[in-house]
Structures are given as structure tokens and as C-alpha cells.
Automatic annotation (TrEMBL):
<dbReference type="InterPro" id="IPR036937">
    <property type="entry name" value="Adhesion_dom_fimbrial_sf"/>
</dbReference>
<protein>
    <submittedName>
        <fullName>Mrfb</fullName>
    </submittedName>
</protein>
<dbReference type="InterPro" id="IPR008966">
    <property type="entry name" value="Adhesion_dom_sf"/>
</dbReference>
<dbReference type="GO" id="GO:0009289">
    <property type="term" value="C:pilus"/>
</dbReference>
<dbReference type="GO" id="GO:0007155">
    <property type="term" value="P:cell adhesion"/>
</dbReference>
Length: 81
């Protein structure tokens, strides 16, 4: 199975709202960083579990940091074979 994630802010994922200077980075449970539009390494899912484990962290996007609320959505494509 491979996953492709979209909605980019450079090599990270964009946020919307009042906050500025931040983006999201998505990491799988093996430490691989997901880049927008790039196919992830293949993942073998254990049939009994049927789950994907990812973590999210905020990173700078090169713009001046401004406090505020933010939200985001990430579109992903899952190819299962």
C-alpha cells in the first residue's frame, strides 16, 4: 500500500487561519517524513490491526511567526493492493 498526501506549503502541509509562520509536518511510525505529492514508502499492514500510525508536528515555514488560531485539512490518496 502507498499513500500520497496533498495540500502543500513547500515541503510541508499548509495551515489556514490567523496564525502565520507555521506549517505541519507528518511523520509515519518509522520516522519517514511525508512530503506533499510524493509517494510514501510501501507499508505492510498487519491484517488484524488494519491501522496506520502517523504523528503531526508544527514546523516553521520561513515566514514571520504570528500567534493565532489555525486549522488545516490534508487530502490523501491510498492505493491498496
Amino acid at each position: 500500500m502507498v499513500i500520497i498526501l496533498r495540500l502543500a506549503d513547500g515541503n510541508n502541509f499548509a495551515v489556514n487561519g490567523d496564525a502565520e509562520g507555521v506549517a505541519m509536518q507528518i511523520i509515519d511510525d518509522k520516522g519517514n517524513v511525508s512530503n506533499p505529492g510524493v509517494v510514501s514508502p510501501e507499508i505492510n499492514i498487519i491484517p488484524a490491526e488494519m491501522k496506520l500510525n502517523y504523528a503531526l508536528r508544527l514546523v516553521g515555514n520561513g515566514k514571520t511567526l504570528r500567534a493565532g488560531t489555525y486549522y488545516s485539512s490534508v487530502r490523501f490518496k491510498l492505493d491498496y493492493y
